[in-house]
């Protein structure tokens, strides 16, 4: 099986080498849990390995994302080069619709050989649906379309609770190939970031809740360490 190395320190080890190519991941996390940083680094590491990436932002503007990410990762110095050479593109579609997202993806895969993509966030799209059945159906159709494209995607989903015990199984849990959870766990006088690979179809993977940090040079996942 071909795998897409995320390039995020420690994560590929947890995935036994990377995300199976062409699969579609949902990245769950609460506010500030690191979803955008995680997705941005996934594309950045890909760009460095010669795989073009597309960041589809449905909420923040391109400039906000770039500003925030450059401040989050000040030691990653060549973000602007990656953007100006189109190895990484950040695009905000005009409409909040999966059709529009699909068109954008198809276009960039054809015209810029995009191999990895990020959709941030599915929650924004879900809000535009009146009922869950309709959203589930549309998401399912969207994924069927994605499966015909040679692209490996991460879609963020907003989690409503920081607690591990409070996971509610949601629509995205069932339709996506993989689920990664980011937590901002509550400890006495601080919060600890932790990551969990909850599901990944077609491969064995770590099931350990593993601490991670957002550092100026990128995300570091501390494989083998425990969360206290
Ligand atoms: N250089 C840094 N070093 C350590 N932590 C940082 C750094 N820069 C940002 N952070 C942390 O990362 C968090 C932001 O992460 P990010 O924007 O990726 O989260 P998110 O899950 O996308 O949030 P939202 O739900 O608001 O979209 C900040 O709240 C801050 O705590
Ligand atoms: Mg975000």
Total strands: the figure is 11
Provide the gyration radius in Å. 17 Å
Number of discrete helical segments? 8
The CATH architecture category equals 3-Layer(aba) Sandwich
Going by helix content, strand content and strand pairing, the class is alpha/beta
Query: How many domain units?
Result: 1
Per DSSP, what share of the residues sits in E-state strands of 2 or more residues? 25-35%
Name every ligand kind in the structure.
Answer: adenosine-5'-triphosphate, magnesium ion
End-to-end Cα distance, whole Å, is 35 Å
Instruction: Write the CATH homologous superfamily.
Output: P-loop containing nucleotide triphosphate hydrolases
SSE string:
EHEEHEHHEHEHHEHEEEE
Query: CATH topology, anyone?
Result: Rossmann fold
Task: Provide the spatial order of strands within the biggest beta sheet.
Answer: 5-4-6-7-3-8-9-10-11
Main sheet attributes: strand count, strand direction, barrel closure = 9 strands, mixed
Task: Name the shape in a single word.
Answer: globular
> What is the residue-mean pLDDT, rounded to a whole number?
94
Q: Which class in CATH terms?
A: Alpha Beta
What share of the residues lie within helices? 25-40%
Low-confidence blocks of residues? none
């Amino acid at each position: 099986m071909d795998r897409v190395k995320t390039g995020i320190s420690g994560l590929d080890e947890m995935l036994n080498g990377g995300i199976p190519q062409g699969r579609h991941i949902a990245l769950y996390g609460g506010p500030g849990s690191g979803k955008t940083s995680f997705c941005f680094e996934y594309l950045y590491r890909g760009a460095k390995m010669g795989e073009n990436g597309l960041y589809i932002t449905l909420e923040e503007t391109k400039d906000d994302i770039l500003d925030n990410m450059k401040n989050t990762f000040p030691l990653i110095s060549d973000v602007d080069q990656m953007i100006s050479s189109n190895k990484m593109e950040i695009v905000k579609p005009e409409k909040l619709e999966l059709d529009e997202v699909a068109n954008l993806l198809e276009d960039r895969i054809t015209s810029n050989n995009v191999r990895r993509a990020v959709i941030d966030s599915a929650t924004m799209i879900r809000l535009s649906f009146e009922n869950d059945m309709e959203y589930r159906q549309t998401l399912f159709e969207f994924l069927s379309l994605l499966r015909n494209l040679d692209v490996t995607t991460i879609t963020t989903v907003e989690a409503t609770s920081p607690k591990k015990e409070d996971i509610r199984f949601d629509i995205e849990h069932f339709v996506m190939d993989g689920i990664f959870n980011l937590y901002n766990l509550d400890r006495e006088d601080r919060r600890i970031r932790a990551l969990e690979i909850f599901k990944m179809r077609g491969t064995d993977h770590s099931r350990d809740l593993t601490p991670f940090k957002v550092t100026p040079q990128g995300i570091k996942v501390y494989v083998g360490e425990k969360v206290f």
